[in-house]
Here is the input.
Amino acid sequence: MAISAVRVLELNEEYGLIKNLGDRDRENPEGAGLDLRVGEVRRLLSGSFLPADDTGKKRYSPETELVGDIETDGHKRITMRPGEYYLVTTMETICSPKKRVDIGEGLPPAYLMPVVFPRSSLQRGGVALLRTKTDPGYEGVLTFGLKNLGDQDFEFELGARMFNLVFEPVYGEIKRVYDEQHQGGRVTSQGEMETQN
Here is the structure.
């Protein structure tokens, strides 16, 4: 059950769920979701390794190269060629509370789980958004994969609205909230070996 965009904005005032939300979505939200903008684009330069948890081996994620950053490049235009894959991060910072919140009248308090969907402009341009859920307790920018599956270039500008965020309530107990390597918005270990949390 998604929480309406209007109610998310009300909860945002109380709990600080989304920092740096764009004016359009802060002032005139549409439907159940709020649009998030692309702030940083990276290209993968190396491989990665994810071991089984019980092997004692260290993991690593790929080295990347910055293609564009809204902070330094403004509304730079990025061209994705067919077959290219990028990691993209949001301009917005998500702060999913570590405790239950009061969602609304007649509803029990619940944890909040941010869930992201691609805006339809991506699929219309032949681009797939690769994403995962975000657990309660996470704070930071969100990072996604973008893959051009089409046979034409896909162009976009930094700051473009690409993703649609909805919050869903999570009822029941949670053993532990998110507190892993990517807390704070880290994109990758840049090839450095590390122990899985």
Notes: Residues 5-15 form the longest helix (11 residues). The domain at 5-47+59-170 is CATH 2.70.40.10 (Deoxyuridine 5'-Triphosphate Nucleotidohydrolase; Chain A). The chain has four helices and ten strands. The radius of gyration is 18 Å.
